[in-house]
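Subgroup meeting minutes
Present: P.N., E.W., G.H.
Scribe: E.W.

1. P.N. recapped why we're keeping a running log of single-chain structure predictions: easier to compare across weeks, and new members can see raw inputs and outputs side by side.
2. G.H. added today's entry (118 aa).
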Amino acid sequence: MYTGEALFQTHDNLEHLGLMEVILNRDLPASMIQKARGARRTRHANKYFDAERERLRWPRGAKSQSSVDYVRKAEPLSRLISRRDEQFYRLVKEMLRFDPDKRCTAGAALRHPYFMQR
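Output recorded in log:
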């Protein structure tokens, strides 16, 4: 809503993960990739992750060049949110952490300094 466009505008799972890495300006954590590669999930995880390097299969696994181009054009969160809105930027960053165990809860988000200054 901040920019007027959906942040992750895609229906392709691998493209979505690629967008997350670009927008959040970091690679998916190896610990999460290892979890995804757990015994029961290996077949599905192989579609998305390189087993040897424990990295996302992006852009090699992309369905098309237009998909790769779309992700490459994505802006990091730090460029999408104005520097004047530093508290908002910090809040969104907390809400978009890769690891759900480290992501802020709804209650923590409501107590964030961004809402306290309003």
